Amino acid sequence: MASPLGVQLYTVRDALAADRDGVLARIAGIGYTTVEPFNPTDDPEGFRRVADDLGLTVSGAHAIQLLHGETGPVFEAVATLGTDLAILPAGIPEEDFTTPDGLARAADLLNGLAEQAAGHGLRLGYHNHWWEVEPVVDGRHAIEGLVELLAPEVVLELDTYWAAVGGADVPALLGRLGERVVALHVKDGPAVRDEPHVAVGSGVMPVPEVLAAAPGAQRIVELDSCATDLFDALADSRDYLVGLGAA
């Protein structure tokens, strides 16, 4: 069964800051049915009301705020949004992904947050960039070594584009990570750093193979940057993914 297609709202962060409700309405109008916020503590009750009115669900929430102060209010805000998945999107020192000791520190942090999340009825996820993939530690991508140290409760949201930038064969990596991966950031572009992203299906990413390697994972479209209109790129991305049978 195809997964509902979502949008990571960081894609439209500037427009969102100016007109949250209007942006959510445009996303729903394009045909997306789920969204992934990146600032769950910013009026979660109001966000939930608008999303509900538009028929949008929240698949998960990026919560870098977990590293900045008390975690309880952050987890409570995530739950208020209507999701059980709080995702740490960054914040672990990049150098921790270059040594076994560093991986152990990263795992300890994530395992501790997962235990706290469970106390609020939530799951804890981690979202990668290239720096968890590019380093090779003990003969494999650092993220693979990290996974072996994680409690079973910690899940992954694999950013497929950044994994490719980090040098991974993304479908093969997904095969090795298995059911630990519950969500994918589906992105496209030239697969190099510091270049604009493009609508999914118009770059170099092997999108059909990536999706086939994680058939049960939530699909979330994101463009960190874009040289064209972001809403057009979101619409084109959805059209492409629907054409693949991904929604």
SSE topology sketch:
Blueprint: E1 5-8, H1 13-18, H2 20-30, E2 34-36, H3 44-54, E3 57-58, E4 61-62, H4 72-80, E5 85-88, H5 100-118, E6 123-127, E7 136-137, E8 140-141, H6 142-149, E9 154-159, H7 160-165, H8 170-177, E10 181-186, H9 207-213, E11 218-221, H10 230-243
Parallel strand pairs: 1-2, 1-11, 2-3, 4-5, 5-6, 6-9, 9-10, 10-11
Antiparallel strand pairs: 7-8
How is this structure best summarized?
This protein has 247 residues and is an alpha/beta fold. The chain is 40% helix and 16% strand.
Strand order of the largest sheet: 3-2-1-11-10-9-6-5-4
CATH superfamily: Divalent-metal-dependent TIM barrel enzymes
CATH architecture: Alpha-Beta Barrel
Helices and strands, in N-to-C order? EHHEHEEHEHEEEHEHHEHEH
As residue ranges, the low-confidence spans are: none
**How would you state the average pLDDT, rounded?**
97
Helix content: 40-55%
Number of strands: 11
